[in-house]
């Protein structure tokens, strides 16, 4: 299927999903983080929504943190690797991201098309999985599928903001129930708090690391090679290997619970 760069209606729809309560049930609320779950037709597809209020963090800073790949290497301890592949438009690109799963589960990776839009007091970033001919699935990873993942940042004044994170992912594996529960009760809330903590430290870090370099705000700074949407196709889950990890017990897993950012 052809790939389409999101338009204003796609961003509007994503924002509505972030703010709507219809069809969502709260599955975690503690320490300033709320997580909602949504039952999908497919049991393998997880749909989660999270919210955290970030005091002392302007919306613009959160937006920069979520874009800044160099800084992400400092705070995202679940990340194995990430890199940009190419740009489609001034506000859309294609990139790669891989992340650690608790051993002995296999690690997952994604190739996604990402698009972003600052809109008054709102800042949005959304992505979905695509196929790129030069970045096929890797032997040591399970290529997962993002059906729709993204962030909505809303300004609550000069020095406060609210961050929403919504994700609908097919992990391409028959995962045990405890993994799904762990994501909503532990992994997701911890990730939101990490972003918040990272955002508090970002201004000082950025002053020492290319302080004027923000290609997500200034397209003329973007040095990525241009690629055409015609080079890409929609990544369909049924074209990827589906592995059965449902028998993995929680006792056998090794968790990375590093809280450092």
From TrEMBL:
<keyword id="KW-0966">Cell projection</keyword>
<dbReference type="GO" id="GO:0006869">
    <property type="term" value="P:lipid transport"/>
</dbReference>
<feature type="compositionally biased region" description="Basic and acidic residues">
    <location>
        <begin position="249"/>
        <end position="261"/>
    </location>
</feature>
<dbReference type="GO" id="GO:0016020">
    <property type="term" value="C:membrane"/>
</dbReference>
<keyword id="KW-0813">Transport</keyword>
<keyword id="KW-0282">Flagellum</keyword>
<keyword id="KW-0597">Phosphoprotein</keyword>
<keyword id="KW-0969">Cilium</keyword>
<dbReference type="InterPro" id="IPR051213">
    <property type="entry name" value="START_lipid_transfer"/>
</dbReference>
<protein>
    <recommendedName>
        <fullName>START domain-containing protein 10</fullName>
    </recommendedName>
</protein>
<dbReference type="GO" id="GO:0005829">
    <property type="term" value="C:cytosol"/>
</dbReference>
<keyword id="KW-0007">Acetylation</keyword>
<feature type="domain" description="START">
    <location>
        <begin position="22"/>
        <end position="204"/>
    </location>
</feature>
<dbReference type="InterPro" id="IPR023393">
    <property type="entry name" value="START-like_dom_sf"/>
</dbReference>
<dbReference type="InterPro" id="IPR041951">
    <property type="entry name" value="STARD10_START"/>
</dbReference>
<keyword id="KW-0472">Membrane</keyword>
<keyword id="KW-0446">Lipid-binding</keyword>
<feature type="region of interest" description="Disordered">
    <location>
        <begin position="242"/>
        <end position="261"/>
    </location>
</feature>
<keyword id="KW-0445">Lipid transport</keyword>
<dbReference type="GO" id="GO:0008289">
    <property type="term" value="F:lipid binding"/>
</dbReference>
<dbReference type="Pfam" id="PF01852">
    <property type="entry name" value="START"/>
</dbReference>
<keyword id="KW-0963">Cytoplasm</keyword>
<dbReference type="InterPro" id="IPR002913">
    <property type="entry name" value="START_lipid-bd_dom"/>
</dbReference>
<dbReference type="GO" id="GO:0031514">
    <property type="term" value="C:motile cilium"/>
</dbReference>
